[in-house]
Amino acid sequence: xxxxxxxxxxxxxxxxxxxxxxxxxxxxxxxxxxxxxxxxxxxxxxxxxxxxxxxxxxxxxxxxxxxxxxxxxxxxxxxxxxxxxxxxxxxxxxxxxxxxxxxxxxxxxxxxxxxxxxxxxxxxxxxxxxxxxxxxxxxxxxxxxxxxxxxxxxxxxxxxxxxxxxxxxxxxxxxxxxxxxxxxxxxxxxxxxxxxxxxxxxxxxxxxxxxxxxxxxxxxxxxxxxxxxxxxxxxxxxxxx
Amino acid sequence: xxxxxxxxxxxxxxxxxxxxxxxxxxxxxxxxxxxxxxxxxxxxxxxxxxxxxxxxxxxxxxxxxxxxxxxxxxxxxxxxxxxxxxxxxxxxxxxxxxxxxxxxxxxxxxxxxxxxxxxxxxxxxxxxxxxxxxxxxxxxxxxxxxxxxxxxxxxxxxxxxxxxxxxxxxxxxxxxxxxxxxxxxxxxxxxxxxxxxxxxxxxxxxxxxxxxxxxxxxxxxxxxxxxxxxxxxxxxxxxxxxxxxxxxxxxxxxxxxxxxxxxxxxxxxxxxxxxxxxxxxxxxxxxxxxxxxxxxxxxxxxxxxxxxxxxxxxxx
Lengths: 241, 316
Ligand SMILES: Nc1ncnc2c1ncn2[C@@H]1O[C@H](COP(=O)(O)OP(=O)(O)O)[C@@H](O)[C@H]1O
Ligand SMILES: [Mg+2]
Hints:
Bound molecules: adenosine-5'-diphosphate, magnesium ion
Distance between the termini of chain A: 25 Å
Radius of gyration of chain A: 19 Å
Helix content of chain A: over 70%
CATH superfamily of the largest domain in chain B: P-loop containing nucleotide triphosphate hydrolases
CATH topology of the largest domain in chain B: Rossmann fold
Number of helices of chain B: 11
Largest sheet of chain B: 6 strands, mixed
Order of helices and strands of chain A: HHHHHHHHHHHHHH
Largest sheet of chain A: none
Radius of gyration of chain B: 24 Å
Structural class of chain B: alpha/beta
Low-confidence stretches of chain B: none
Number of strands of chain B: 14
Low-confidence stretches of chain A: none
Shape of chain A: globular
Strand content of chain A: under 5%
Distance between the termini of chain B: 39 Å
Number of helices of chain A: 14
Shape of chain B: elongated
Number of strands of chain A: 0
Mean pLDDT of chain A: 87
Oligomer: heterodimer
Number of domains of chain B: 2
Strand order of the largest sheet of chain B: 6-7-8-3-9-10
Strand content of chain B: 25-35%
Structural class of chain A: mainly alpha
């Protein structure tokens, strides 16, 4: 598994694309925070405005990172080599997943100037910031698992991107007030609660408020496990196709 | 017997298309099996099932006794596979790629370096070891693919069109390499180049539309050729007509064709009926009548004749 992880992570950094990606991510994070989030007007030295936009950023950023994981292997045929090595499908899926997750983690870490600035500007609650970072990283993992899983069903990176971005959007949006108000008119309450229970946005939001609820962490870890499991099943299924 | 590859009743459907239709054969240690067939015959699909990359619709494949679907890890350890088109990670150098494959195959430390050195020499890729694979020529890429398949010195080699895209010298080198390795491995190579089968294979299987239509040595395949034991004879111009008529009257002759002619002589090929040898008869009469204008030549047959014969029969 570590061998696959290493190869995959290296290949992220092998092209300048990775650097470009991370830069775009950082710039977008900055723009969202300062302009849309009105960082300065918030009047408070914390990073809430910054983290608030993470689900929406990941929506594009992570499918773009994950789309190549399997689609590219199928397109170039290297999957035939990969899957005839003496490794289990689970090992390969995990290796790829972890590489993409660590890569997003790197992008996330590079936002540290934000953290430095708020500490210079004021006296933020660094505990809250830490849980927010952890929350964001866990949420990123769930997105990566979705992206990797979708990448396994298509030869085309573009298709993989579109489908996984859509799926990620659904997972973020189902908890937003707009959707809830709309659906609230005709859906029974328990269904509504169940649906919004799957919202990445809601689970993440509570973590960014410094509410340390283990269930939010467990939620993201379970989502990862679920999609990794589906990913393995999809790769196996393709063998029989 | 030391049977390293056992394929039993392999069938593969892609939706409604039957790509492989009940293929069974065994390959022993020391054998080089040439897997022949027109495009789309099902060669690659059969090989993919033999490696466990594709699951058969029915049937089993075993590598050194390990079923590739039930004991995939053990089976894969024993086997090297060059997929069709020799895919490789374009963003890596051959050295990185071989290191990756070696590590994934569980080789350690010194062994990795040593084996990379060995396969690099065998496949002559030393000069491009540090160059990105996507910038390499087709010939080098193919050999990198081959090196990857050999890195752990496996007992079983499954090579899908190993010489495709190589120039004649490189083809020669790769064939020599396969021959050198042949005695202690079981090797399957797929190809549509018939001379390759003659050059390296101890046995040839021809498949057509997913079915095995011939399974024998290259020599006995050649014997199936219409031109097997045919005789080329060159006669003087002025006796050409009479010679031709005489040959035609032999009851063991199937056909006489004119191959070439010039001002002084004509060359005929005399094709015997199946199983007959005309050499003595023809050489005697040509000598006695004084028709001869050159040497007699016996033809051993052409694999491409046989190939066409066998594979077009099933198509029509
Ligand atoms: N993944 C696939 N999906 C559908 N059909 C396929 C697939 N792979 C191969 N085939 C079909 O199976 C047949 C055999 O193909 P293949 O094994 O590649 O032949 P060969 O290697 O002898 O040229 C062809 O008709 C091909 O179109
Ligand atoms: Mg093929």
